[in-house]
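Bug report

Summary: structure tokens for Isocitrate dehydrogenase kinase/phosphatase differ between web form and batch submission.
Environment: batch mode, default settings.
Steps: 1) Submit the sequence below via batch. 2) Compare with the web form result.

Sequence submitted:
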Amino acid sequence: MFPQRLDSPQAWGIAKAMIDGFNRHYRLFRTESQRAQHRFETADWHAQQRAQRERIEFYDLRVKEAVTRLEREFRAGDQPMEVWQQAKLHYIGLLVDHHQPELAETFFNSVTTKILHRTHFQNDFIFVRPAVSTEYIENDEPAAKPTYRAYYPSRDTLGETIVRIIDNFQLQRPFDDLARDAGYVREAIEARLHHVTLRANFQIQVLSSLFFRNKGAYVVGKVINGFNEVPFALPILHNRSGRLVIDTCLFGEDDLQALFSFARAYFMVDMEVPSAYVQFLRSLMPRKPRNELYNALGLAKQGKTLFYRDFLYHLKHSSDKFRIAPGIRGMVMLVFDLPSFPYVFKLIKDHFPPQKDTTRDQVKGKYLLVKQHDRVGRMADTLEYSEVAFARERFEDELLDEIRLHAPSQLEISDRDGDGHEEVVIKHLYIERRMIPLNIYLQEAFDAFQDAGDDEAAAAQARGQIESAVLEYGKAIKDLVAANIFPGDMLWKNFGVTRNGKVVFYDYDEIEYLTDCTFRRIPQPRTEEEELAGEVWYRVGPRDVFPESFAPFLLGNPVVRDVFLKHHAVLLDPAFWNSRKERILAGHVHDVFPYDPEKRFARRHGHVSSQAAAAPKTPALAVAGEGR
């Protein structure tokens, strides 16, 4: 109900306290993001990773602070609904000239639902849709940085313009040879402009803040010429001498999609107007959902808000039903999906078989570990929700029976809001991007290979699919190792294949830090009885891992075996795992690039000075880096 007048002093006080709480949150968020540049300049990689983890907790801490203040000063939970309706209108008024209105609306939702203990159905008191437009917001203060800067080079001044672009970021660490690197960038751009007429609007637009993640800083922008726009990113890294280099030039939407992948850690970016950054990034990656861009910028709560709005919109414009997700059913997680929607929904079962020695809280802890860890492009990000409601008629009966059997504590079917329609309420779930399970992807290739018969082209295509998948699987394992992660259950079914053919891990209930595991060889039997024993006769600790035992479960198909042993045989050798573990414990910082290492200028032009530097010898867990 819309209030007839604004006559409650408590409503104004609540709205003002709420916006104060949000402003404090975003001020601290920006401050931590700004400090990323100093950590990059001083090569403090472990601090950079630590800050990325800790910043994730900022939002919930500020929400708790706001709730505490509102209860203490206004007894907010006891206020009548008329006061809350007025508080929302006052709050909207406070957002008219705000630079982060969409984030502030989400903050209001978070605080309000904590105080009123309402769930999905109480939409009168939250922002179900945005109330304030984010179009054309800009900071007009004289000293403020614009969202992006535009540069207008000619063919002759392109190299000088690249140098000016980099200089404008005012990095307090010298470059090895900026003119040389700018020349490489100029050559890369000119290769795309070869035999192309430069139009009147030829320009380079660059976002005004660097994007920091792990050991890299990224310049993000686009080249505009006539009707054509080409996205690009320039990774800036440290070389062996501790000086800065432009490592490569990434071009096109696919390269940018990989850089901003949902399977990578969040960036640290100083943004006065985050919606303007998202708008610019969308012009580079139009297929990238806005929620994933907000996530990539470290604004995960806003990402959740946008995802849920997109989800509700999709439900309104579709009619298919939720079903048990295709693939082998897990022992810990129950997974379902909506065929028309590119995500899967995962809820923790109430009971696990004896071989799964874990608890609900431990499983949630594993998912939190992945959220806070560097995912190195190999672990899917998840969105976590509570009290999610779905229309009953959208659920297949088989799926509801499965939930009743395996997770009854997580299910409620009722008409909570009294509108005459039953709803399915899931108490707690995770949502992930849908991928093709790797076991299904491989089985499809096996079937195509068998069906090819004498069709050599079809057989070659199927074999190529198998080989690329197995090659990617091994690379995924090695990237996880670089990030100090042992996946635990390495079966094909726990990995997925993305749209671009990349293999990503998504089953986290057995995940462990590599450094917490003990990698052993299978002991030789000492007697005939031990050799013929039907069960393991040697002692096995809780975190003992026997890499040789992977082979029987992974390498049954001869084509898979050949490819795996050719490229990844070391994964069956405990010495490989122990050597990586020892290097991590010694403080070695591994490199995991968000692009093909063959694209690096150092490899293409042969400059030894641009190769990766040795890691600092400090006793800490590995930081999986993005170049050095």
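Above is the batch result. After comparison, the two runs are identical; trailing whitespace caused the diff. The longest helix spans residues 9-41. The chain has 20 helices and 20 strands.
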